[in-house]
Amino acid sequence: MSGFEEKRQDTPWESPPGSAPSDWELTAAAVELALLSRNGTPLRPLPANVAELIHRDAPPHLLQVVAIEPRPEARLGREERGGRPAGRSWLAAGWWTAACLAALLAWQSSTLPRIAAPPDDALQPPSLAELRGKLLAEDPGAVTVAWKKASDDPSVIANQADLEKPGGLGDVVWSPARQEGVMRFRGLAANDPAKAQYQLWIFDAERNDAYPVDGGVFDVPENGAAYVVVRIDPRLSVSRATAFAITVEQPGGVVVSSRGRLPLLAALP
Amino acid sequence: MQDSLLPRIAGGDQSAVPECISRYGGLIWTLARRRLASREDAEDAVQEIFIDLWRSADRFDPLVAEEITFVAMIARRRVIDRLRRCAGLPETASIDEVGAVPDSSSDGRVGRRLELGEEARLADEHLAQLKPEEQRILRLAIYDSLSHAAIAENTGLPLGTVKSHIRRGLDSLRQKLVGRTRDDRNASSRSRMKPETAAERSTR
Fold it and tell me: How far apart are CA B39 and CA B13, in angstroms?
């Protein structure tokens, strides 16, 4: 171990750039801000030429994001969606109704994917980014859980650094109150929608684990190191989410997954 | 409270970039200048800090910390790392000195006062409750980035006492901030700093 590493072990409030934030470091930062303020010295403005350089050089360093928004017709169809009672009371019809609907959907989606590959007009990174921030900021019950590689499925193509880094594969933000969320990930291989699609499942403490809630199917486009961000809008109410899983399924998804290919899992502690 | 900008940047919203530079540029510049004696070093460091911010924007979680604390943390990391790499020892200039030196490239404009976040206000409150000796040592360690040995020499205290004061003092602040956040999370949506989750720990 180098002297530098020893030094860092001795000072947990100092970590090298790129490490995961720790509460030691955040505390040290809060202390520095507090002491800075105690001095009462005004902040010096950032020199304009430096600000210009930072602005000019920013784009290549920004996270590249491909946002995928579900199409309205991709779920229950326009008529059914329009007639859906408020407050999800249609769920009272129970699992059997939901299963029938899901089966119908699976049949429909053999020709119409529920969440299609992102057309140009679906590339709206700010909207999903804003939704994610909004859920975190406004819902105290919102949870964030990191994706983890669940198997050696070939669809996981993340590099080793991302696999080892907490949140390196992305995460799920889920709002129980709003019954919606945003998941983002990187390191999943692009799929050919004609051959297979990814499908999200939400495990609910109040449901049988054999029948997790279907979170919809989606495609991962070729995007290099970019994040893929997908809105979560399950068709069934989730009482208490315990885990999120992504499986690889036939085009259009399935009603009940065999879980033969389950590349990513995000389990709540 | 201002809206967070980093989630927008993490989502690829380039319009948040100039807002972020405008909001945090002065803070980051001040943090860099007070530690780095060379103006050129500070300019390079600030550019590196913003690149770190763009790249790590997705790691900001408003449930864990306030944005200003997160930004200050990223800035501290980069500046301290630069100091360690370049010189091995920090060359700390006090903020008062930095403030007194006219800055030709900023047209002599006087910056705004630091608008403290809630976490920094809490840290200030709790800091004030520590013994004067502990406060002084924490200041030397966190604010001036002095090594344990340098603090021992500066204060005349044994090295072991210095180490235990720093760790105990900062840990008590950390616990109070974390504890406060837990309470806030239960009471309202204004939740902040929280401990690492079991899931996060298990991924390490």
Answer: 31
